[in-house]
Every structure is written in structure tokens, then in C-alpha cells.
Amino acid sequence: MKERIAHASFRLHTQLEKLEHTYARLHDRDTELFQRCVGAQVSNDAGHAKIYANECAEIRKIAKVVLGSELALERVILRLETVGEFTDVMLELAPLMYIVEETKSKIVGIVPHVANELDEVSSMLGDLTDEAGEVNTSTIPIEATDTEARKVLEETGLIAEQKVREHFPDLSSFQTQTTPKAEAIPELATIPDMEAYIDDMVYDYAKKHSGELSVSSCATEIGKSPEEVKVALQRLQESGKVTIQ
């Protein structure tokens, strides 16, 4: 019994790491889009700024679900490490199974391979409770275990929402302003001038693509016109940062 519980805990640890990597990728993608949003604001391109802001908002909705799932699995793992002997197994595992099932349903459309693994872990936990057949199931307060599980999910959801706010920059200025003004966006204070900002984005794009650069692809990715990219490349060549062949 203990070995199988330990195995279930190990499998949950593996899925927890996958969710952590997914959250990190979402954060990186949001950072990239947010920078494009800032650039569009500086260029007074309200249309693109709104598009990027909306994409960031969607990413953050997903990030909240992923982070909430992380926190829920952490709670399950912690409880599995303290599960008692046979007489307590069903009482202790019932709310954990509920949490795993609910977590699976939330992420099935985001990280389906993790959801599939959680389905198998849930089955393992179900088998463990079945093996404790000596326990009279009619005496187990199912409503109480569901209430406990729901409380855990509510708590982790609230914590996830707060952490997402802390991890991601505010979007309100992009989503509510109809006539963007650079001075209304604190993040823009870090951009000394627009030319240098575009140069940095083009240079970073070139580095990310191992020195190979398509003007049209670069323009699309950084949210600028091909002409702006060409001018930026010229400036970068003159400063010695790149060599155009």
C-alpha cells in the first residue's frame, strides 16, 4: 500500500514539473507580447496594441488555470505523504481523488498529456481505496470530503489569481485607453528612444534566429513595418553590431 501511494506521489511530482514548465513558457510568451504591445503604444499603433493586449489577457487566463493546478497538485502530494494505514485510507484519499479529477478537467484542453496522466493517477487512488474494503463505505461522509476538496480548490484558485497579478505586468492602460499616451505607461520610461528600442528588438530577433533574418518575418514578429526593420538593420550595421551579407 505505502509503495503504491509513493508511486502515485512520484507520478504527480512528474506532472507538477510539466505544469511548472508550461507556466514558465506562458510567462515568456506573455513577456514577448507585452513588449510588442509597448512598442505599438510608442508608435501610436492603437490597433496592434489592443491585439497584443488581448492576446496577453488570454494567456493570463490560461496561466491562472495552470498555476492553480500546480498549487492543487502540491496539496495532494503533501497529503499523500502523510496518508495513514488502511482504516484511514478511504477517508484521506477521497478528497484527494476529487481534487485530481477536478484538476484534470480544468487542464485537459491546455496540457492534455498531463490530464491523461492525472486520469491514471486518479484510477490508482481509486484502486487503493477499493483495497481497503474492510472500511464500511456507508460511514464515510462523502459530502464532507467534497466540501474539503472544494475548499482546497477555491483556496488554490485565489492564490493563483493573486500570483498571476504579481508575475505579469498590468494591462489596464492598454485595454482602456482609446488614445494611447506614452506618459501614461510606466514601462515606457525604460525606453530612451524609439529607434534604439526597434534596434534592440531587431537585434534580439537576429540572435534568436542564429543570425539569419527575414525582413518580413522579423517585422511581423516584432510588430513593425518592413521599412522600419530595414532602417534598424542599417543602424545596427553602422554601429558594428551586425554584418549584412
Q: What is the CA-CA span between the terminal residues?
A: 66 Å
The number of helical elements comes to: 9
Tally of structural domains: 2
The total beta strand count reads: 0
Could you tell me the radius of gyration in angstroms?
25 Å
Q: What coarse outline follows from CA principal-axis ratios?
A: elongated
Q: List the quaternary state of the chains.
A: single chain
| Largest sheet: number of strands, sense, barrel closure | none
Structural notes for this entry:
The protein is mostly helical. The protein has 2 domains: 2-174; 192-238. Helix content is 76%, strand content 0%. It is built from 9 helices and no strands. Helix 2 (46-80) runs antiparallel to helix 3 (86-107), helix 3 packs antiparallel against helix 4 and helix 3 crosses helix 5. It is elongated and about 75 Å long. Mean pLDDT is 78; it is low at 134-142 and 176-192.
Name a few traits of the molecule.
245 residues; mainly alpha; 2 domains
List the helices and strands and how they pair.
Elements: H1 2-42, H2 46-80, H3 86-107, H4 112-131, H5 142-167, H6 172-176, H7 194-208, H8 215-222, H9 226-238
Helix pairs in contact: 1-2, 1-4, 2-3, 2-5, 3-4, 3-5, 7-8, 7-9, 8-9
Summarize the structure.
The chain is mainly α and 245 residues long. The protein has helices spanning 2-42, 46-80, 86-107, 112-131, 142-167, 172-176, 194-208, 215-222, 226-238.
